[in-house]
Amino acid sequence: MATRQSEVLLSGEFVRISKKGGLFKVTVNKDCIAYHPVHSPETPMETNFIQISDCVGSRCERPTSGEQNCGTWLTVIFYPFRKKLFSGKRTRHRVTVTFQIKTSDDFEENSRLAEKWMNVINCLVREIPVAIEDVESCVPPLRKKLLILVNPKSGPGRAVSIFKQEILPMITDADIPYKMIITDHGGHGEELMKDLVLDEWYGVVILSGDGLLYEVINGLMSREDWKSAIKLPVGCLPGGSGNALCCSINYAAGEPVLHDLVLHSTFILIKHRVIPMDLVVVQTPSKKYFSFLSVTWGLLADIDFESEQYRSMGEARFTIGAIKRIIGLRTYKARLSFLPVTDYIPKNNSEEGNKSNKLLTKIRRFSLRSRSSSKSTVNSQDEIEGQSSSEGQSSNVNGEPLNNGFDVDADFKAQTVNNSASNVENPSVADVNFNSQSIINDNISDLQNGNKVKTEINGDGGHVEIQNGGALGEPVITSDCTLRKETEYLTAAAENGDMQIEQEVIVATKREGMPVPTPLMSPLDQPVPEGWVVIEDEFILAGALYQTHLGSDMLAAPNAHINDGFIYLMFVRQGISRNALLNLFMTFNEGNHVDSPHVELVRCLAFRLEPLSPGGNVMIDGERCDPCPLQGQILPGLAQLMAMK
Ligand SMILES: Nc1ncnc2c1ncn2[C@@H]1O[C@H](COP(=O)(O)OP(=O)(O)OP(=O)(O)O)[C@@H](O)[C@H]1O
């Protein structure tokens, strides 16, 4: 029985308010609420479970009927999965269970007991640990308001009614205070962010397509206090026709993407979780953008921009746009350059590809720090410039400090220097290694293009061991940051021998008062730095992607993670037939396009695109910009996203 597997925090016997009624034994532990009729034995057959992970809150109320009634009602609201009747699709649906809390004739006493149950359940729902000794006193912290921006013009124009009919009831279930603003012109979101009093809000959520979130992020980054502003959690609900970030969030959380997107996205939102999100700083000759989704060019951008006219059709607009563009296929000449995470081997180069069967040797990563870790043993310029450990620290709804992505790498640095092999237990190191491990796990087929050698580390998807300690390069002081290379030697047990990996972490420590550092890129009018790969060719499409999805049926970068610190550069060169291209688009929904010999998908830290033929479109997070030379660099974990892993 689940209730016996972990500590029982609460236990009582209450009448269930339902058609059947009856007295139930109810218990709460950290994972679930269990109840079974008292007259029958406690068997799995008779016991009902409410998983805390499905639960969004509980509330107490005095029954309206029955004046003699001195009991209080305790209602638990949860959204378990159920198969839809005809389609068989797994979807969440709303369920409530109500018990009458009545252990005495005194209404006040019953109310206090019901409130205790409510507080414990609400803490657990918000992942606030509750020990048995806290049960009497635990109260979930008060929440700040959520600012919800609704774009009435997004997608097919239904955002306001979606908010009222579908989202508001769920927000009410979770008892989340909010303020809703309907945007009334393009740029409104950005204006609001520039003047927002950060302390007043728990976070900002958009109900729109990706364009409004783009405004929110760029508005926050344009502020003088961008460093703390960008730590304000942002969230998104689907109101547009593409909703790529919503799909990526749902995919990462294991929630459905292809149906009931509003329901499942709102469920994630009201679960109160926040995780770091990578951004990419994109530079053009005239402007700087902060992008959270993608930069696309060629076919993908043409479809996105030219299908605007079919906006009223919702997501079908992309299918029509794709068919039109594939019939009238264009190729574009460009120079595409990038700083790869591992050695780049072109997919069509089978000789090189075979050589890459040798186990992976080098991983390149980038880490952005705002301050030094107090654990660091290194004395350097970055510590002199470091800020106090509490400065700029944001907290989640529970008042706990958020892991903002900087700290993860700060810990990693300390561990590296301390040369400790046992550090794999440390969650922050594990986090860094998880991302490296994900490369190794899927590396050779994915990264080295065409090689199907799959390597399982330690046979259990386990971890990479730090074997040989690390080396720390000399700090280099640039105009906007202090730069240093940390080299880490990792060993992973693989099927066909140990895999030796050199992991090079390029660490940039930001200088106070300076903009976000971009040390991986050279100025746009100068050649790319050493170590970059440069390809000059005719392309059908190119896209720098940092989320899994470009739309609900476009699993474009299946291995991407919201905060893995990588850009996934996808490109298709000319030489693919229209038929093959059409087939490619048909396989996008499950991410199988990556197996096509025509599709290259390379993990990198920075890229540069220089269009060499006129025309076409460049889309940054779905917003058009004129084709021009542009470049982008990853900013690992810079933003905070309302999402779950
Ligand atoms: N009231 C408004 N009237 C006109 N434009 C608006 C309004 N509010 C916001 N906008 C603008 O609408 C633009 C498009 O919004 P967004 O991308 O979020 O939706 P969408 O284009 O419908 O979504 P998708 O790209 O998925 O189709 C945003 O850049 C924003 O500036």
UniProtKB/TrEMBL annotation:
Q: Does the keyword Glycoprotein feature in the UniProt annotation?
A: no
Principal subcellular localization:
membrane
Tell me which Gene Ontology terms the entry assigns under biological process. Answer: regulation of apoptotic process; sphingosine biosynthetic process
What sequence ranges are listed for the domain DAGKc? 141-286
The record's subcellular location field reads:
Endomembrane system
The GO molecular function terms of this record are: ATP binding; sphingosine kinase activity
One GO term of the cellular component aspect? membrane
Q: Which SMART domains match?
A: DAGKc (SM00046)
Sorted keywords for this record are:
ATP-binding, Kinase, Membrane, Nucleotide-binding, Transferase
Enzyme Commission (EC) number:
2.7.1.91
Which PROSITE patterns does UniProt cross-reference here? DAGK (PS50146)
Q: Which PANTHER family match?
A: LD11247P-RELATED (PTHR12358:SF112), SPHINGOSINE KINASE (PTHR12358)
Record's protein name: sphingosine kinase
